[in-house]
Amino acid sequence: MTKRKEAFKLIPELTTEFETRIRFNECDPLGIVWHGHYIKYFEDGREAFGRKHGVSYLDVAESGFSTPIVKSMCEHKLSLRYGDVARIKTEYFDTPAAKIVFRYTIYDPNGDVACTGETIQVFVDKKGELQLTNPKFYEDWKRRAGLIS
Amino acid sequence: MTKRKEAFKLIPELTTEFETRIRFNECDPLGIVWHGHYIKYFEDGREAFGRKHGVSYLDVAESGFSTPIVKSMCEHKLSLRYGDVARIKTEYFDTPAAKIVFRYTIYDPNGDVACTGETIQVFVDKKGELQLTNPKFYEDWKRRAGLIS
Amino acid sequence: MTKRKEAFKLIPELTTEFETRIRFNECDPLGIVWHGHYIKYFEDGREAFGRKHGVSYLDVAESGFSTPIVKSMCEHKLSLRYGDVARIKTEYFDTPAAKIVFRYTIYDPNGDVACTGETIQVFVDKKGELQLTNPKFYEDWKRRAGLIS
Amino acid sequence: MTKRKEAFKLIPELTTEFETRIRFNECDPLGIVWHGHYIKYFEDGREAFGRKHGVSYLDVAESGFSTPIVKSMCEHKLSLRYGDVARIKTEYFDTPAAKIVFRYTIYDPNGDVACTGETIQVFVDKKGELQLTNPKFYEDWKRRAGLIS
């Protein structure tokens, strides 16, 4: 039986870091980043991951699929402010399910954790059908990444 | 010869008003609406115009065209703040050219002018070709609106 | 001992509904609302709740506090599209902790659930100190709302 | 008499280039950048200019002023798409008036002009008063930049 803690495995090699400078227009009247903008930073991190590891949105699209977000979660620890250069760490969590799971940690300029989060994506084909098993292109990618044999 | 002041005519009947409540997430660290968000308010006004006068984005799309913005301009007079209910007046400016011209006036809760602006749109067909004359659906709309006979 | 299911109680009277029309600029190249914009809709719902029930952002600010979001979560079931009029239901969840918990359900034009979500807010005073117990103004509000005696 | 063409002078040394990668969430259902987002790119360019030339938003704020945008204009020539790396050129236009004028040119990945634009900013002090002459800090900056003697 697969236990839950085995089902989601962090793969240290499958990690990407991306820096972003906080924009004036992302800060609210309290002078801090409005909480909803962190979802954009997660996307920045996820996209950087995709470019580095060959599984970008466009790679997915070329394979005939899209990968809509079905769940996103964000926990805020510290505020980011205008002008801060934040570091977004994106980690891939392996799962046997037909899903893509990323975890995010955003660090402030002092290296302290400003925010953590997670997104879950599924596979949808061109007809809009949810895929219950991993598409071939994704199995191939996992094989190349050494996640399956 | 058509003089410029005749070429663009304000048609008082072709005016729409739309109210919007300023969101917290639209305000910047100075406590006022970040200037770029006014372009969204112009779109809110233009869309309300389209729904009222039967020339919405979806009407245009069904006719096989899109109407990308080629120019937008915004002049700020007063600030809007979180919680303000602003009124967006959208006015149609008639022109013989194959363009759609709207002018916008945004009023603050006191009825004072916060901002004025203008957008110019052109017609592009499904192949991406710029139309040098008005598409038939738009000529028909102008006829129904009493702008041409 | 307080059990978790007692700790968070849905108060049916403390519910608000708010309608929003999906904007063109909120939709992505897939033609659906980009997932991060749902956080704005949650804020629209929360603000409508605050106005209706007398516990708005400005009420909170006048009492000398701010209520930053420390956690937000969003689960997507169905897509919303440009032009859809969506209905945002915001429900208050009572908790004895010094937190404000809202749950959100967004319905598509057919009345089907497009998305559910939750936000958790804490109280921070003007010096930026996290409050470990409910501020007096909030206890008063809960008393008026019949949540405590 | 000062002629208009003398009043606004392009200063070639006062130019900055900044690259930005077009985000998925900045593209609309037509697959292109929604026109309102260019105002953000202009801000990215202006901020890069401020950091390079020592006249950033924070420099201005430390001097006791803010510089709200009073006019912005944007003309679109070509579309930008998701994944494009665009180049934003920001040019300073000198004027004797108490204003800051920037012109922007955004290039697509082929080096073709996607968009041009302009912003005009004024000086407002901490009491919210519009300054009719350049504040001392700005005169000093212009002197250091060789614009005045």
UniProtKB/TrEMBL annotation, chains A, B, C, D:
Pfam families: 4HBT_2. GO terms for molecular function: fatty acyl-CoA hydrolase activity. Keywords: Hydrolase. Gene3D superfamilies: Hotdog Thioesterase. It comes from the Bacteria. SUPFAM superfamilies: Thioesterase/thiol ester dehydrase-isomerase. PROSITE patterns: 4HBCOA_THIOESTERASE. Belongs to the 4-hydroxybenzoyl-CoA thioesterase family. This is Acyl-CoA thioesterase. The lineage of its organism: Bacteria, Pseudomonadati, Bacteroidota, Flavobacteriia, Flavobacteriales.
